[in-house]
């Protein structure tokens, strides 16, 4: 198997020394996505729900560029600035993962890049 770097304009370009995603065999590892709009490279305007939606849209773009989609996500990790936002993020999350939801971890962190409110990473299967 060969490690393949996945890059797409449907998600923000990396802002550091990392790849948007790595395809390895039939697995796809997506780096943590912040709520940057890929067209403007600005943080999505609005509350934590707007930011969560942008994170998931970025993930969706990366997965699709690798030949998979949100239905094939096996595991997510959600990093949030305030655990009090958990239920609000869940409302958006449930719109993207409607059936056979992936395993998930959610942790509150002291700070995220660019002081965003949420960051999400995933591991997916490529059929």
TrEMBL record:
Cited CDD domains: YjgF_YER057c_UK114_family
EC number: 3.5.99.10
The keyword Cell membrane appears for this protein: no
GO MF entry, a single one: 2-iminobutanoate/2-iminopropanoate deaminase
Keywords linked to the UniProt accession: Hydrolase
UniProt-listed Gene3D superfamilies: RutC-like
GO cellular component, one term: cytosol
Keyword set includes Magnesium: no
Enzyme class per UniProt: hydrolase
PROSITE patterns, sorted: UPF0076
PANTHER family (UniProt xref): 2-IMINOBUTANOATE/2-IMINOPROPANOATE DEAMINASE RIDA (PTHR11803), 2-IMINOBUTANOATE_2-IMINOPROPANOATE DEAMINASE (PTHR11803:SF39)
Family: Belongs to the RutC family.
Name this polypeptide is given: 2-iminobutanoate/2-iminopropanoate deaminase
Record organism: bioreactor metagenome
Lineage of the species this protein comes from: unclassified sequences, metagenomes, ecological metagenomes
The encoding gene: yabJ_38
């Amino acid at each position: 198997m060969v490690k393949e770097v996945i890059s797409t304009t449907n998600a923000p370009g990396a802002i550091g020394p990392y790849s948007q995603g790595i395809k390895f065999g039939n697995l796809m590892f997506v780096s943590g996505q912040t709520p940057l709009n890929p067209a403007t490279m600005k943080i999505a305007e609005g509350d934590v729900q707007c930011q969560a939606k942008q994170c998931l849209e970025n993930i969706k773009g990366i997965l699709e560029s690798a030949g998979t989609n949100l239905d094939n996500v096996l595991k997510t990790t959600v990093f949030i600035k305030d655990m009090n936002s958990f239920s609000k993020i869940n409302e958006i999350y449930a719109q993207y993962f409607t059936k056979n939801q992936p395993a998930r971890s959610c942790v509150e962190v002291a700070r995220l890049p660019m002081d965003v409110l949420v960051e999400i990473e995933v591991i997916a299967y490529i059929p």
